[in-house]
Every structure is written in structure tokens, then in C-alpha cells.
Amino acid sequence: MNDNYKSGFVAIIGRPNVGKSTLMNHLIGQKIAITSKKPQTTRNRIQTVYSCEKGQIVFLDTPGIHKAKNKLGEYMVNVAERTLKDVDVVLWLVEPSTFIGAGERHIAEQLQKTKLPVILVINKVDTVKKEEVLAFIDAYRKIYDFDEIVPASALRGQNTGDIVDCIFKYLPYGPQFFDEDTVTDQPQRQIVAEVIREKALHALDEEIPHGIAVSVDSMKERKGGQIMDIDATIVCERESHKGIIIGKQGSMLKKIGSNARYEIEQMLEMKVNLKLWVKVKKDWRDSDFLIKNFGYDKKEV
Question: Would you say residue 241 has pLDDT above 60?
Fold first, then answer.
């Protein structure tokens, strides 16, 4: 291993919907973290690994830091704030704006306690005029003394290389933690569940998605290794939601299933036979047992 090799952990933080998962997917070049315009998409820390000649960056994509409303919300905020204790560098993503709200100020307060190098990424700059960007940088400088500020567009891939260079600047020298071909430590089942949940989020109306979780009940490869049989359940909070998720004559469930199947096939590089079920479990977001059941384990927080 050469002496110039660097490796470390980077937390990607930011309010919900600022583009954290999109940035991670762009950097890693594979789709791992699910993306959706609806808040609370990322519920767990997703570890993804970026390797190159310079070194290795292990990204922790935290759930958005926000004020919690229920047990699931509380769990998500705890994961996000606890993650800051385990990393070498913090990458904070924000929207391009001169208005800095309470959410952003709350994050700045959390960061003041850490003494970690913090890189601010002003994302989505493709949506604003170039000359406005300086004003945004200026506004953020006033709330925190950032080590670096990078304007970027995760969606368009603008300046994402600069973000990687900045991170390496602040990482310690050290050995690699994972093999070069490791992209994520999330077990396959969890990634499959997340893909199904993403497709449901895209297909459904605004009011349902918060209240859905997906559990993969079985995942078996057929003899010969050509086909993967997957049974999964979409869990919702109300009977009325169940009807909407299934749709007229099962049309909505079919749509979710075929969109998810296509993506899972690309990921597993094999044919997939996907069966989806829908169940109602009232208030699962406030039940410790059920939260744990869907892979959000309090012990890991």
C-alpha cells in the first residue's frame, strides 16, 4: 500500500430533500441510496464506498436532521446526530438560497460541537443564475466557519469531482477498509426493499408514502442461478391506503412491481420474479417492535 493512500469516513448531512442520495449515487456511479422528492426517504445510515488510486472514502448517508414528530422521526434524528461522532469529515448539503432557516441553524449548532472539518456543498446550482451563487456562499459563511464551500449540481454532475478532491484533502492517511469492488455494506435484501419502496413513493400520492415500509419476506435463487424469486410486503397504516396502493384491479401494485423488478434485475444481473403483497399495520411508525422489524434497529443508533 503506498504511503500517500488516504482513507476515512464522511457523513453526508443536510435537511430532507437537498439531494444527499443523488450526490452519493452520482459519486459511486451505482444506484444505492433511494431518491425521491418526498421527505424521509432515507431512514438508515447507508454506507457506500468510493475507491480510487488516492484512497478510499466511506460515505454515511444520514437521514435528514429535523425536529422529530414520532418514534420513527426521533430514531432518524438520533441516527443522523450520532453519525457525526464516527466520522473524519462532514459534507453538508444545502439548497441554493440566501434564506437560512431554523433547520439549517439547528445543524450549524450540532456541528459547532464536533470540531470536525466541514465542507459545505451548495447543491442544485444548475437551477439558479451564476451571479447569485456568491450571495448564497456569503449567507452561509455567516453561520459557520466552513473549511471549504463548493457550489455543485449532483443531478448534472457539476463540480462533483471537486467535492471528492476536497474530501481527500481532509482525510487521514491510512489503509483501505474495504476491497475495491465493495460498493455498499447494506445487505441485498435491504437494498431490494428500498428499491421497492422508492418505486412505491414515485407512483403514489403525497399523503401515503411516509406511512409505508417494505419487508422482503423471501429471496431465493432458483437452481441454475438464472432467476431470483422475491416475495415482499408493502406495509401501510390504513385500510384506505391499502386500496390506493393496490389500485383498480391491481393496476397500481402492478406498476410498482414492474418498475421495481426492472431495477432489481439490473442490480442483481439476473431475471427476477417479484411478488408483492399489501398489509395494513396501524401506527407502525410508533411501534418499537415494528420499526425494528423493518430494519430500523434502535441498537444500531
Answer: yes
